[in-house]
Amino acid sequence: MLSADLKKISIFLLLCLFAPLNQAKMYRWVDEHGRVFFSDKVPQDQSQHKRDALNENARVVETVEKAKTKEQFALEKRLQRLRREQEKIIEKQKSNDKVLLSTFRNLDDMQMALKGKMQAMRAQRKVMDGNLLRLNQQLQGRQKKAAALERSGRPLSKKLKDEIASTRQQIQITQQEIKRHLLKTEQVRREFEEDIERFKYLTQSSKSNAFQLSNMTASNKAATELGLFFCSDQQQCEQAWNIAREFLALHSTTPPDTDNKKLIMHSTPFLDNDISLSVSKQETKTQQQIFLDIRCRASTIGNELCASRKVGNIRRSFNQFITERLNENK
Questions:
Q1: β-bridge mates for residue 159, sequence order
Q2: What is the pLDDT of residues 237-272, one digit of tens each?
Q3: Which listed CATH number (3.30.310, 2.30.110, 1.10.260, 3.30.420) goes with 227-328?
Q4: Which residues sit opposite 265 in a β-bridge?
Q5: Which pLDDT value is given to residue 1?
Q6: I need a surface site. Which of 4, 142, 238, 297 has the fewest CB within 10 A?
Q7: pLDDT of res. 47
């Protein structure tokens, strides 16, 4: 007696004999239990499986990937948001570079601007320090007055009590303003120094080429921030795709779920500390891109994990990981 699979193959061969007469397509698929099916029609309850379309010689002429899951649809939405975010980062960087290159002629201009800004910040701090000194003197005077009244056995007036409380409050407010001013001063200094380094980099060859370099590096910045790798050609993209698979295995705490030519996805996070990674291959008019997606469990702890520095570092290391591995393989 023929086995079940041999029977299916025999039936398929018979159907192929008649296929040229009725021009019916033949399909082959495997269900979730590993059972192989051949038919000229795919039942609705089997349409979610990956299937091959076969010609009269039983050769595969077309492959239809299995139906997308809700997780895959959600991934596509996140990738759309990532692409929009990519465009925003690129445009913001290019805009900042344009302002930088248009505002300053050379590094001396930038150093002078930084010096002037720091002088203005120190002048503001001097005013705040003067206000704090004046308030402390007021408080000391009112406290002495209160102490004298207490020694003489006379009660403190409500006005004096209110003045002391108000002065203490103003001192606290002024101290907080000074702290904020110190932080702002350091931020201004740091941003200016970053701008100086950026200006040096953009104008390293000539200022006429700076805008071209800006366009290129803006894309690189977006790639690092978002977890994105740009393929230079098809061969490199195939190598990068395999390296991306290794990256997912290294950082994802959930097992693999989907793996095809355009999507590698690990399964949905189950625990609060689970991290699930996926990569998707996206094609533009000029090149292919590999996007990294990171999912955490839909919970308070999971949301905090996905917003944490740990996950941010994983995302920012994606591009560098692929680049370094590609260089090792050269």
A1: none
A2: 999 999 999 999 999 999 988 888 888 889 889 999
A3: 3.30.310
A4: 258, 278
A5: 42
A6: 4
A7: 63
Decide: 276 and 269 in contact? Cβ < 8 Å: yes
- Residue 66: predicted pLDDT: 60
Query: How far apart, in whole angstroms, are the C-alpha atoms of residue 250 and residue 317?
Result: 12
> Quick check: helix, strand or coil at residue 40?
coil
Q: What's the whole-model pTM score?
A: 0.50
Question: What angle is formed at CA 40 by the lines to CA 38 and CA 45, rounded to 5 degrees?
Answer: 75
Name the amino acid, one letter, at 240. Answer: A
CB proximity list for 193: less than 8 A, separation 6 or greater: 114
pLDDT at 322: 93
- C-beta separation of 326 from 243 below 8 A: yes
Helical H runs in 50-157? 70-103, 107-151
Residue 293 — φ and ψ, nearest 5°?
-125, 140
Instruction: Quickly tell me which residue has 């239809």 as its tokens.
Output: 64
Cα distance between residue 172 and residue 158, in whole Å = 21
Residue spans per domain, the chain: 4-64, 94-213, 227-328
Three-class DSSP category at 154? coil
- Give the separation between CA 139 and CA 301, rounded to whole angstroms: 47
pLDDT computed for residue 21 by the predictor: 43
Backbone angles phi, psi at 282, to 5 degrees: -120, 140
Residue 58 neighbours by CB distance under 10 Å: 14
| 197 phi/psi in degrees, rounded to 5 | -65, -40
Distance between CA atoms of residues 247 and 218, nearest Å: 24
Burial class (CB in 10 A: 0-12, 13-18, 19+), 96: middle
Phi, psi values for residue 55, rounded to 5° = -90, -175
Q: Which residues of the chain have pLDDT under 50?
A: 1-2, 6, 9, 11, 14, 16-23
Q: Note the Cα 245 to chain centre separation in Å.
A: 18
